[in-house]
Amino acid sequence: MAEASLPQFRFSLQVVHLQGESSEELAFTYWNSKRLNNSSALQDDLLVIMRRLDGSFYLEIGNIYHEGELSDLEIILYNWALGEGFFD
How far apart (Å, rounded) are the C-alpha atoms in residues 5 and 15? Predict the structure, then answer.
């Protein structure tokens, strides 16, 4: 099986409206995300970029925190997932 391309990764996007303590954030989930319902609990094995109420995006991978444009964060997340074998 060939590795996923960046366009395929982006095409897998699902947006989930989270409700709970950090209310009103949106989770942009990719690739291995199962159909999520509105939930405040995201699974650790999901590939997720978050959007705050103010419209800014952030990504946390392990202990590394990234902020920026969605397209830039998608590239960071894709490259990390590729290195971790998510597409095998």
Answer: 20
Which residue shows structure tokens 């997720």?
A: 48
Q: Is the pLDDT of residue 37 over 60?
A: no
Domain boundaries, the chain: 6-83
Helix, strand or coil for residue 73?
A: helix
Please give the structure tokens belonging to residue 64: 């590394």
Mean of pLDDT over the chain: 83
User: What pTM did the predictor assign?
Assistant: 0.83
What residues contact residue 80 under an 8 Å CB cut-off, 6+ apart? 61
Higher pLDDT, 34 or 25: 25
Contact 70, 28 (CB under 8 A): yes
Note the helical H segments in the chain: 6-11, 70-83
Assess contact for 34 and 16: CB atoms under 8 A: no
